[in-house]
Amino acid sequence: MIAVAVCTYNPDERLLARTLEAIESQQSPPGGIECVIVDNCSSPPVNTLPVVEAFLRRCSWARVVLQPKQGLTNARLAAIEHTTADCLCFIDDDNEPASDYLLTALKIFSEFSCVGVVGAGRIEVDFVDPVPEGFARRFSHHFQENDFKGYAYGCVSGTWTDYYPPGSCMVVRREVLTEFRSAFLGGQISASDRVGFSLSSGGDTQIVWEAVKMGFAAGISSGLRLKHMIPAKRISLAYIKRLCYGTSSSYLPALVDSFPLERSKLPKPPSTARIAWTIVKMTASHVLRNKIGLLPIGLATYLGRIDGLMRATGTQNRLIERSIRVLGLQ
After folding, report:
1. Same domain flag for 174 and 268
2. What rounded mean pLDDT belongs to the chain?
3. Which end of the chain is more exposed for a tag (fewer CB within 10 A), N or C?
4. Between vectors from CA 307 to CA 329 and to CA 324, what angle results, nearest 5°?
């Protein structure tokens, strides 16, 4: 048996309908599928949505559970607690996995006992609403677009590799999830993840790192394919700006959470003068290249990286804090 969890908060019903259809269309393994839709306190409640009601009527092996505590990690903990299968696939409410996704993941786990986490090697970005000219070409990689050929996995501590899987449709062995849950509830890791306005992604990485700490490998396979559906509300430079900040600011705090010895290897945060000079140089460079429209994204990435470094080292800087507020990143 394999379990599926859809953690959702105020979902786009168009996308959720496609996600549920993809789950219903999965080729079932011999042990069957168990499915939980984790409602992270949506309004209206997820179980009242017509697409969910219809899905539950058709699929007796699926149910909705409520997690009133906000945040993706809390929703995932509820999914862990309310499922029993030996492995669990986290399907976001904007993911559309191929019909053989679950069977392929189980085959990988069966053939490679050393692998504890596996994810999609081929991710197609599907813009479900009209896209401004050039947006898809320039920014699809921010939505996890990938066309990896083959299969790659490894077990490398204290870093992130190109073959470590993204959170979309990540499949995890139960023993890894048990360890992750214990570490989070015990305060060993904070699993900083998406809550409300925040677009942090620390929880995804820390699940992978928990597997690595246990001696498991993590990887991606081209046999695991999905579509990542992107609606109009994410098709903007403002959203990309916040996404870049969330990703870059969450990495180092998550790293030193999972690998405390890495803290001593971190560089000293730059001085206020150095930060100001870097911002000036970035601004001048964008002006000279006639790319001023992209400046907020570059600044968001830089500010996120420095903010993450400061949080990881326990330091503060008023210029960084003020700049983050001015750019609307928090």
Report:
1. no
2. 94
3. C
4. 30
- Tell me the C-alpha distance between 172 and 83, whole Å: 13
Q: From CA 81, how far away is CA 104, in angstroms rounded?
A: 24
Domain CATH code at residue 178: 3.90.550.10
Closest to 157 measured CA to CA, from 255, 23, 263, 54: 255
pLDDT at res. 198: 56
User: Both 277 and 129 in a single domain?
Assistant: no
Q: Which amino acid does the sequence have at 35?
A: C
- Single-letter amino acid code for the residue at 93: D
Q: Would you state the structure tokens that stand for residue 40, as one six-digit string?
A: 């992270």
Domain that holds residue 213: 2-235
Same domain membership, residue 305 and residue 214 = no
Q: What is the pTM of this model?
A: 0.93
Q: Are residues 184 and 252 in the same domain?
A: no
* Residue type for position 320: I
**Domain check: are 207 and 273 in the same one?**
no
C-alpha distances out from residue 145 to 81, 116, 124, 297, Å: 31, 23, 6, 19
Pairing mode of beta strands 170-173, 95-97 = unpaired
